[in-house]
Write a structure and sequence with these properties.
Helix content is about 80%, strand content about 0%. It has about 425 residues and is mostly helical. The chain has two domains: about 200 residues, MFS general substrate transporter like domains (Growth Hormone, Chain: A), CATH 1.20.1250.20; about 200 residues, Growth Hormone, Chain: A, CATH 1.20.1250.20. The radius of gyration is 22 Å and the shape is globular.
């Protein structure tokens, strides 16, 4: 009788690539998150006429979002670690989608501020949940790259949102824009519920992909301490991550909030020139987000230790920031746009690696909580450095000092990362 064929070796079939579908869901969620976030600012000239809102009241409405978003990071990070990524992300998306839809019911400044605050709490769950998802679905050497990809959704929203909102508002009114972004969020929820499970139990993931994703995760987990939200505050690594967020998140928000008036008032750009320059700047930020994450993964594959690879990538990105800040001194407007693009690209590459340090050092069970703590301090820094400080400095001294100040924050943060996060080795019992 003929011999029976030998059993195929383990993982002889090609690995599935289902983790990239999960990453596309994270990208989609982040895009919707930022569409909801930028919508009010874009529609403000229309809304203020109907609701009779002045600039001071508009500032209060935005402050409602910022304060709730800052506090929401602490709440949502702990909640997501407690209930898991699948349920935590679902609750966050449903929460902020419903809040976005209810903006359409606002008939006063107070109502608009209330729904803005509710939106802020829900939206704060996006990054803790997305970072935790990356931790579950990607091995260490791929996490910064994956984070850079989903984080690029924030830039895509800034590119595609305004022209789409303009057409919808012109045809159906501003309230329909909020209903549309809410519908996008609910559509995402349906996809998430139907397709998300942990890779350990997902039926669409074969053994080869599962082995690649998990690697030595079981050995790591056996030596990990039990780190809760309160205990995380006792580690210097938490403060290294959080203080770096405190200093560098406001730089992104500064460019997001103050770049359009700077180009219009100082550079004398007309609306057409702003229309081509902003999409270019955010497109370059996408390249920075993905490229910065790729650099550290590439170095790790070349045998570099985790901490050295991350800090090298972060140092390259941080070095771009003071160079980009020199845009305020550039005489040529095209050179100014190019230098600003270098700064936004550098920040997004920095951010992709900084987010990943929380997953490098802390157990998976604590990743959302630590991300939430860092996000809270980042939000606090945003209130101080991207709202209050620029308003005072620009009014009394112009844009030059604040651009140069913003150019220094990443280098200071890099020093704190080096001192407090050290070699970025995983916490052990």
């Amino acid at each position: 009788m003929p011999f029976a064929p030998a059993a195929p070796p383990a993982h002889s079939t090609p690995a599935t690539r289902y983790r990239w579908w999960i990453l596309s869901l994270l990208f989609f969620a982040t895009t919707v998150n930022y569409l909801d976030r930028i919508l009010l600012g874009f529609l403000y000239p229309i809304i203020r006429d109907e609701l009779h809102i002045n600039e001071q009241q508009y500032g209060y409405v935005q402050a409602c979002f910022s304060a709730a978003y800052t506090i929401g990071f602490l709440i949502m990070g702990k909640f997501i670690d407690k209930v898991g990524t699948r349920i935590g992300y679902l609750v966050s998306l449903v929460w902020w989608s419903v809040a976005a839809a209810l903006h359409a019911t606002a008939g006063s400044t107070m109502a608009l501020g209330f729904w803005r605050a509710v939106l802020g709490v829900g939206e704060a769950g996006n990054f803790p949940a997305a970072i935790k998802s990356v931790t579950e679905w990607f091995p260490k050497q791929d996490r910064a790259f994956a984070t850079g990809i989903f984080n690029a959704g924030s830039n895509v929203a800034s590119m595609i949102g305004p022209p789409a909102f303009a057409m919808i508002a012109a045809a159906y009114g501003w309230r329909m824009c909020f209903l549309l972004t809410a519908a996008l969020g609910i559509g995402w929820v349906v996809l998430w519920v139907l397709t998300y499970q942990r890779p350990e139990i997902h039926p669409r993931v074969n053994d080869a992909e599962r082995a690649y994703i998990l690697g030595d995760a079981e050995a790591e987990a056996a030596n990990e301490p039990n780190v809760g939200w309160a205990k995380a505050l006792t580690y210097k690594q938490t403060w290294g991550f959080a203080l770096a967020k405190f200093l560098t998140d406001p730089v992104w928000w500064f460019y997001l909030y103050w770049l359009p008036p700077y180009l219009y008032d100082v550079r004398k750009f007309n609306m057409t020139e702003i229309a081509w320059s902003l999409p270019f700047i955010y497109l370059m930020a996408d390249f920075g987000s993905v490229g910065g994450g790729w650099i550290s993964g590439y170095l790790m594959r070349r045998g570099w230790p985790n901490g050295k690879a991350r800090k090298t990538a972060m140092a390259l990105c941080a070095a771009c920031m003071p160079i980009g800040a020199l845009s305020v001194l550039a005489g040529n407007p095209i050179l100014a746009v190019v230098l600003i693009s270098l700064a936004t690209s550098g920040h997004q590459g920095w951010s992709a690696n900084l987010y990943t340090t929380a997953t490098d050092v802390f157990p998976k069970a604590a990743s959302a909580s630590v991300t939430g703590i860092g996000g809270c301090l980042g939000g606090l820094g945003g209130v101080i450095f991207s709202s209050l400080l620029p308003g005072y400095i620009v009014t009394h001294f112009g844009y030059t000092p604040i651009f140069l100040i913003m150019g220094s924050f990443h280098l200071i943060a890099l020093l704190l990362v080096h001192l407090l996060l050290g070699d970025m080795k995983r916490l052990q019992k």
